[in-house]
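Worked example

This section walks through a single chain of length 123. The input is the sequence exactly as stored; nothing has been trimmed or padded.
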Amino acid sequence: MILSFDEVGNLLDEMAEEFPEEFYQELNGGISLLPEAVEDPQGEELYIMGEYCNDMMGKYINLYYGSFAALAGQEDWTEEDWEDELYTTLAHEFTHHMEDTAGLHALDDKDAEFLRQARETYG
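Given that input, the structure is written out below as tokens.
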């Protein structure tokens, strides 16, 4: 099942309201759902689902609808799968934000190791 961009946006809006206000401190760019699919530049079979950004535009979270839709098509997702993957990705990116705010980078290290292993497997 492939949900539309608007359906995913509505789900994401509902989920975002479930997170505590503290998670939004210093997240001055908010959360955006972008239409594109983002493939890992070093691995053909890997998609970037979301990312936490801290740059001259501020601190913000991007989620990539096209990446979710590509995997949903490959794995025949249900609506529940969409909800699980969106929530997991949003929570993951919030964790990056919270760690960045605290000056920590444990999740960055864990992600780097995951990507290294995935690239060996799929690269």
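What to look for: The helical segments are 5-16, 65-75, 79-102, 106-122.
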